[in-house]
Amino acid sequence: MAKIVVKFGGSNLRTMQDIEHVLTVIRRYDRPLVVVVSAFYGITNMLEEMLFKAQHDHTSIAENLEALIAKKRDTIFTMIRSRDIQNKTKEIVDVRIKALKRYLKGVNYIGEIPPFVSDIVMSFGERLSAAIMTALLQDRGVSCEELTPEDMQLITDGEFGNAEVDFSASAEPVRKRLAGAATAVVPGFYGVSKEGKVTLFGRGGSDYTAASIASCIGAESLDIWKDVDGFRTADPKLVSDTHGIHHLSYTEAAELAYFGAKILHPRTVEPLMNRRIPIRIFNIAKSDVADKPYTVISINGTQKEDIIKSVTYSDDFCILKLEGPGVGNKPGILAKVTREMEHKGINIKSVITSQTSINFLLGLKDLQPAFRAVSGLKLTAVKDIITEENLSVIAAVGEGLLEKHGIAVRMFGAVSERGINMEIISVGASQVAAYFIVKQSDRDAAVRAIHEEFFSKQKGK
User: Measured between alpha carbons, how far is 395 from 113 in angstroms, rounded to an integer?
Assistant: First the structure.
């Protein structure tokens, strides 16, 4: 029987009561699992701050580590009942804290943070949570062991900070290592390069860890436990009358995640589509109905009459605009710019061109590095380089969006009726998504306008 991969994020691991709840959910499966865990809530941010401070302040290392040790020991000695398991877990945690301390001292010594050091330091949150969760399960009679990405050879492409799994190298060793009858507890967020270096999957990458393992072992499903009711027709913080979405296709889920829905890491569906492994999303606050996921993501998505399943947004977009007469028609400009951005490690989210302008959609952290990179090329055809911030991308997602006439017209018409100016519009880049860019101050009104057009009005039909 194929195993289920089960993933718990930091929002499930805030308090001891939350952790106890997670342990109960795991036991209710009553079968061997692969459990992928994120760092306990707040620990990743704490590690990030430690790294930053360690560059210039050696006294901060001991102070911050003491706070981290206190948190972990409190959990160990309060929640673990067996004295033997307590002591064994304390030893494991102490060894890992000492290793963390060595890396932080190295950062202080050289006064900077090399990428490989950043990745290994940031992985310690998951390493600590996996060790403690394994001990807690053993304490409650669950047959389990901790297996790290190093143990199972979850091999990556070696890129620091934003790695991808090399499935040709990983599939066989991961499958063999997880073939045992015991439950495996795996720290998420990272894998290892062929040279044995720790490489992160990006912030929130534990979802991707879980999906990659599920693909390698041919899992029955990937179960992701959240503190919300899965995907909804819009962000309930902005729209009061949202509805739950019970079925999504892989492509719909990927686009919603890419455009800001925080239910999944954007790359979660990648490893699962070809293997047709479903993703089931549960709300841990309602774990008494553990056999009833709130959203199921699979090859068998459903299509609704009005097509649009959800409207979402992201504020992590900005524009780098290259302007000049004929710049969009000048051979080689786009190639030179994209090559330079790739060299500088800058991710281009989208490119929209015209005769007089090339617009690069970027993440906020990449805007200034991209500006400097393009400025350094001294392109004669480019007369001006403009940056635009304080923008939001609004996306409507649904299977059949390009096939049913009038959907995009209704979407953009609903926004225009509110007097909202759309900076850039894109339809056709994806089979299931249409998006546009507005000033951030218009974001909430734009989301509400589209939601009202496609969801609120149908109540009266």
Answer: 36
At position 235, the amino acid (one-letter code) is D
Are the C-beta atoms of 394 and 444 separated by less than 8 Å? no
CB atoms within 10 A of CB 7: 27
Query: How many whole angstroms separate alpha carbon 63 and alpha carbon 43?
Result: 15
Phi–psi pair at 306, nearest 5 degrees: -90, 10
Q: Is the pLDDT of residue 290 over 60?
A: no
Provide the pLDDT confidence category of residue 98 given band limits of 50, 70 and 90.
very high
CA–CA separation, 307 and 91 (whole Å): 55
3-state secondary structure of 370: helix
Residue ranges and CATH numbers for the domains of the chain are: 4-228+263-300 (3.40.1160.10), 311-460 (3.30.2130.10)
Q: From residue 36, give the alpha-carbon distance in Å to each of 2, 108, 119, 320, 421.
A: 16, 32, 18, 38, 44
Which H or E element spans position 65? helix 59-79
Q: Residue 226, SS3?
A: strand
Q: Is residue 329 a contact partner of residue 387, using CB atoms and an 8 Å limit?
A: no
Question: Hey, what are 189's tokens?
Answer: 């967020």
Q: Which two tokens stand for residue 34?
A: 């692969």
pLDDT in tens, 20-53: 999 999 999 999 999 999 999 999 999 999 999 9
How remote is the C-alpha of 216 from its chain's centroid?
19
